[in-house]
């Protein structure tokens, strides 16, 4: 009950923090998509390179987020951005690489070889093949990677409050430091709801972006 | 015209180099279908795919219409060659219309033109445009999809087509239908076609020329009839099968073997006239009986004519089967065996008697080509005894 009271009386604050949270995650994952998809496509050309890239991305994702934030403080301090918005975005961008690169790589690699042969045989250039055949067919899997990245990093971003990036993590960290379960629970619930709602929203988007011929029965 | 000049492909494998195609030398004349035939791994598909450079050649040249393709840009080369593969390979993210129009679109045609072309081609492959244009490949059966595959290959009206076992994945009934339709289309389109198959029956049916491959080498390159009549060696002989004489039957039409003009009687003729005509024309068993439109309705047997008096109209037997001038000999042989007949009257499109075809005539036809070089045991005496 107390938590509910807190939620209703602090609606404005929660809304502001939620928007902050969304903005952080969408900027970070947005940038990660812009880098991860081309990287995933590029590494389909070279198996050795692909292994190396995926290996590095896997290592990055094993670094605990709090440690990654810590590591970036001295590095980014040289530009005067040791804490706050920038390190939070960079960390999430790095975390997002693995699901996005891996799904893109797998999707493009798994395009039916006979479709690729047909595309070559009718005289499509490699670029046209990508644009007209391989990428459209890969969209469901690439989008699934983006969704994974978003949902995962909504959680990670909550911790970024500790380096002053804002977002719903602020409620959680305050709740802990002030021994205030109302704030703590409110923050946790808000993060969870945000993750669930975003996942559904992206699932809807994924279905919208998937070429019609792949879904009709 | 496709000219293949010393075309060779050597694959480097962990176990050393493998020669998949060994100095292949052949020419497909303008407007003909050439079937590349052989067991798997014989080099037929490799040879086909070197023409549009899906597989790069190790050495040798390919000329299309007399022009060396070696220096040509790969993308331009492929856009001028229709390509049909067994797996069909329609793009699932595109509608049937988009699939067919893809090459014209790549070539920069304007939308109205390539849309009209898609519609025209869909009609040509016997699919209703109003039903299929906006559908997706997933919604079509395998046979329908391959019709679209053929339409897509024809879209930019390329002079040359490469087909890699195009009908291999289609069920036998639909395959026959599609083959027939394709041959009918080819009669008008007159494309120069290379067609890979592993099925001798398909090859005999589709080909103007058959190229038999073995271990990367071109063993024999001949018309289907020559190939069946004169296999070059044991391998080709085994490959075309023990029943190659029967396969040849499919290649000849009744009109090629028919004896004409045939003699006949009408219902009003006397049996003695019938007997007289049989003897005059050397008919051993019977003579056809025709109506006023000269359509065969029965026959008078020699036995009856010899022993009985009266008119033919009173003593004729009904016909069990009739041959049409455009039927192939395989159908005729089948009719003869089914109805235990040694001859059949032949009719034209109006059902008018134009001659007759006999087992002896068929045997003679097959025998004439077998005897040509004496290399193969003649079939004729055997059938005559039977």
Q: In angstroms, what is the radius of gyration of chain B?
A: 26 Å
CATH class of chain A: Mainly Alpha
Most residues in contact, chain pair and counts: A-B, 23 and 30 residues
Shape of chain B: elongated
Mean pLDDT of chain A: 91
Give the biggest beta sheet of chain B. 6 strands, mixed
Strand order of the largest sheet of chain B: 6-7-8-3-9-10
State the end-to-end distance of chain B.
Answer: 46 Å
What is the tally of helical segments of chain B? 19
Average pLDDT number of chain B: 89
Oligomer, anyone?
Answer: heterodimer
Instruction: Determine Rg of chain A (CA atoms, Å).
Output: 20 Å
The stretches of 5 or more residues of chain B where confidence is low (pLDDT under 50) are: 372-386
Total count of domains of chain A: 1
Low-confidence stretches of chain A are none
**Approximately how much helix is present in the residues of chain A?**
over 70%
What is the H/E string of chain A?
Answer: HHHHHHHHHH
* Record field, number of beta strands of chain B: 17
> CATH superfamily of the largest domain in chain B, please?
P-loop containing nucleotide triphosphate hydrolases
């Amino acid at each position: 009950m107390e938590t509910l009271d807190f939620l209703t009386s602090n609606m404005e604050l929660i809304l502001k923090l939620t928007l902050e949270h969304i903005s952080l995650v969408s900027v970070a994952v947005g940038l990660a998509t812009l880098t991860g998809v081309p990287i995933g496509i590029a590494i389909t050309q070279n198996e050795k390179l692909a292994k190396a890239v995926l290996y590095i991305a896997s290592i990055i994702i094993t670094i605990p987020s709090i440690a990654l934030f810590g590591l970036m403080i001295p590095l980014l301090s040289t530009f005067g951005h040791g804490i706050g918005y920038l390190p939070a975005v960079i960390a999430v961008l790095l975390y997002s690489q693995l699901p996005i690169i891996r799904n893109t790589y797998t999707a493009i690699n798994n395009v039916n070889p006979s479709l690729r042969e047909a595309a070559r045989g009718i005289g499509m250039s490699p670029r046209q093949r990508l644009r007209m055949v391989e990428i459209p067919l890969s969209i469901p899997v690439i989008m699934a990677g983006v969704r994974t990245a978003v949902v995962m990093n909504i959680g990670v971003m909550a911790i970024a409050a500790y380096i002053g990036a804002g977002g719903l993590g602020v409620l959680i960290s305050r709740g802990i430091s002030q021994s205030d379960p109302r704030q703590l629970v409110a923050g946790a619930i808000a993060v969870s709801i945000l993750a669930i709602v975003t996942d559904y929203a992206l699932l809807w988007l994924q279905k919208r972006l998937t070429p019609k011929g792949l879904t009709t029965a | 015209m496709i000219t293949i000049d010393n075309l060779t492909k050597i694959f480097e494998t962990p176990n050393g180099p493998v020669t998949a195609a060994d100095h292949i030398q052949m020419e497909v004349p303008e407007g003909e279908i050439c079937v590349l035939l052989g067991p798997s791994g014989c080099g037929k598909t490799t040879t086909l795919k070197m023409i549009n450079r899906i597989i790069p050649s190790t050495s040798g040249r390919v000329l299309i219409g007399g022009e060396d393709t070696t220096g040509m840009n790969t993308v331009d080369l492929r856009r001028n060659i229709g390509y049909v593969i067994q797996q069909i390979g329609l793009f699932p993210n595109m509608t049937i219309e988009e699939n067919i129009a893809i090459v014209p679109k790549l070539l920069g045609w304007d939308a109205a033109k390539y849309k009209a072309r898609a519609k025209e081609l869909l009609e040509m492959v016997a699919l209703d445009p109003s039903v299929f244009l906006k559908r997706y490949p997933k919604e079509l059966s395998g046979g329908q999809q391959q019709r679209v595959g053929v339409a897509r290959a024809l879209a930019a009206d390329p002079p040359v087509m490469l087909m890699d076992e195009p009908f291999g994945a289609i069920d036998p009934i639909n395959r026959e239908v599609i083959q027939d339709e394709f041959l009918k289309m080819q009669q008008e389109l007159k494309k120069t076609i290379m067609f890979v198959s592993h099925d001798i029956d398909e090859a005999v049916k589709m080909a103007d020329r058959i190229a038999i491959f073995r271990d990367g080498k071109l063993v024999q390159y001949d018309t289907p009839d020559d190939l069946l009549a004169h296999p070059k060696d044991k391998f080709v002989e085994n490959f075309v099968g023990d029943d190659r004489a029967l396969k040849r039957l499919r290649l000849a039409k009744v009109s090629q073997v028919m004896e004409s003009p045939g003699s006949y009687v009408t219902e009003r003729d006397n049996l003695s006239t019938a007997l007289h005509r049989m003897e005059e024309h050397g008919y051993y068993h019977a003579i056809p009986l025709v109506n006023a439109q000269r359509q065969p309705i029965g026959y008078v047997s020699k036995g009856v004519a010899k022993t009985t008096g009266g008119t033919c109209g009173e003593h004729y037997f009904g016909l069990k089967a009739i041959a049409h001038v455009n039927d192939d000999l395989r159908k005729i042989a089948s009719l003869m065996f089914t109805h235990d007949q040694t001859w059949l009257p032949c009719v034209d499109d109006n059902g008018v008697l134009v001659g007759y075809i006999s087992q002896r005539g068929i045997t003679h036809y097959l025998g004439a080509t077998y005897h040509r070089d004496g290399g193969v045991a003649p079939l004729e005496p055997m059938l005559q005894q039977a």
